[in-house]
Write a structure and sequence with these properties.
about 350 residues, alpha+beta, Alpha-Beta Plaits, four-stranded antiparallel beta sheet, 10 helices, Hepadnavirus_pol/RT, Reverse transcriptase domain-containing protein, DNA/RNA_pol_sf
Length: about 350
Amino acid sequence: MALLHVSPRIEIPLVLSHNSTESVIVLTLLPNSGFRHATADTPAQSPSLQQTMAQLSSLDPALSALQVPSPDQCLAFLLATCLHIPLARPNTNLHHDVFNPTSSPTHFGSMQTQLHAWHNLLNGYPDLQFVHQVTGMIQFGCLLGYDGPLCNTSHHTPNLPIDKAGHAHLHCKIAARLKEGHLSIIQPNQPLSLIDYVHSNPGCLLWKRDLEDTFCHVVTAKVDASLLGFHYGNVRYQENALTFGGSSSPFLFNLVVEALHWVVTSCLPAAWPLNHYLDDTFGAVPAEVHDLSLLPVHVLALAAAALGLHLSAKKTFAGLTHLEVLSIEINSVAQTVGITED
């Protein structure tokens, strides 16, 4: 991780709320007296890690994982509790830049505020080019992957309302193209590594947590802003972040999530599975360490806060043996998987 100067004593207050009652738990970290570089998948133990885990496990399970301190305190916590340096994440090879250093973001968002945390937490990432691209994308705004005349051209196209007959026509066209083989219905990737882990670890405890606002985290660059403009009610608008339906949005957003995935992985035991599918992150904890079943969710919350990302509290589940993940029901006790009705 980063050669960051850390004070001999770090105290992280966790404000816990339950039934209108608040309590404060202070986590005290005692970092190493020196600094140590860790290589890929080699341990980088901190003397305070076991103490920190013990304090987390002693808290009320419904409270400990969801409450986090300030973003910079989360950053200090993650740097102090790094266990190992994971391998580089897949699907992150870039043949073209995803930012333009002469541009700027269309607006200053939470990820821009926490740019220093991205630099610190990714300092040990094995692929320096990936780090350069992701941090540049945050600092200067995200390019959409288009380099053509429309970037510098104002083109007005009136909105075309669609009536019932139009919708019926679209349904017929889609059905015809499916029959012709020009379209295919696909299913999301199955969490195979998690299912394999459940099969090998009966009774393991499942967890998952979702990011809120998804693509809205990734602010676009001003030089590409016109590509996401539209006109309505005699007013011209432009989107300031990646949009749903954009052909490059999933890939560009996934770069951010791969970085988040790597940071969380570095602070958890290497044997614990951790998966993500765009904004959904999920995994499992061995049954024999049930007292730490909320640790992955808490580390994810710390990392998200440090990096300026927002998690959904209502879509947070942990410490369960039966959980739905990507429309697949997993039961680690019964050792079954099934497709949900929805």
